[in-house]
């Protein structure tokens, strides 16, 4: 997804960014976008990726379900309305998309996976490209003897970009998958070995001269530990971070992005894994500043942070969902804002609460580079209508 501002827009926003968290809270600048038309027969739908090259060119991808089978969802906003777009078929029963990114109207990439019922060992990653006229299939250098998944894309030009996810070969533990597009060719890039039973990367961000990736690995006692990887232009290295993981807790980092080359954010969640304790999660927000990673206090209970979108070092938006730990079905859209001093809740327009089910969540967000507008998307429980919010 696109989370980089143009240089001109960044300069304008830096001047207008609030200087202190003591300023009066502003009314929400979030607006609900028109509903996406549901696919015929859809029982529910989820948006898992969004990119917004311009205000009249926004792509959202995910999956919709009918009789228990997932199918790919591709939607496009033309400035007036959402419309579904066809995408090449794949041989399989479960076919969905997890991420999308675009550098312009004639360069859109979407990735996901496909799996046939009963097929071993599991889903296989796939990649599609849109050239402004039609979608085509793109071959990937992934194992043919195991499972693979692409969870995120970050494209910097039509011929340059990154993709991350995970891969599993029978007899070998799950490991991180890093792919790079250079000169129009996708190749595998070696990731640093991590002492863990399984590693998955959930997000990637390509800087001007480096790149970041985050995810989780299985640590001692099968608890999850946050993973942060950094690419310095030559190779990837594992970066220790204070994710706060303790006994009986599992940490997942779901998003990473730069506010500047020396100001980097990673967000996710820390959830209980003890059978004797009620399941609950708390937010994890980490910031690299002054050369050191530190935790940032994030308000909220039963909260999971899913995407971080920096506009400037004093204007960072984080989305996710929150609720009451002991009240299933109380979840709702969540947005937090960093003003250079603290993270504070930002009012939004959320989905409808449905008792007993995840009622409303924001799972992804993207930035329009030329304007700094933010688009956040997610789902509403038991509904084929995914929802999208917009903030100028």
In short:
The protein has about 400 residues and is mostly beta strands. The chain contains 1 helix and 28 strands.
Structure overview:
It contains 1 helix and 28 strands. It is mainly β. Helices cover 3% and strands 55% of the residues. The longest helix is centred in the N-terminal third of the chain and has 10 residues, at 7-16.
Query: Distance between the terminal alpha carbons, to the nearest Å?
Result: 18 Å
What's the total count of β strands? 28
Overall pLDDT confidence: 85
Radius of gyration: 20 Å
Main sheet makeup: 4 strands, antiparallel
Oligomerization category of the chains in this entry: single chain
What topology, given as strand order, has the largest sheet? 1-28-27-26
The shape is globular
Low-pLDDT sequence parts: 15-26, 350-358
Helix vs. strand class: mainly beta
Fraction of residues in H or I helices: under 10%
Q: Treating each run of at least 4 consecutive H or I residues as one helix, how many helices?
A: 1
String of helices and strands:
HEEEEEEEEEEEEEEEEEEEEEEEEEEEE
Provide the β-strand percentage band.
Answer: over 45%
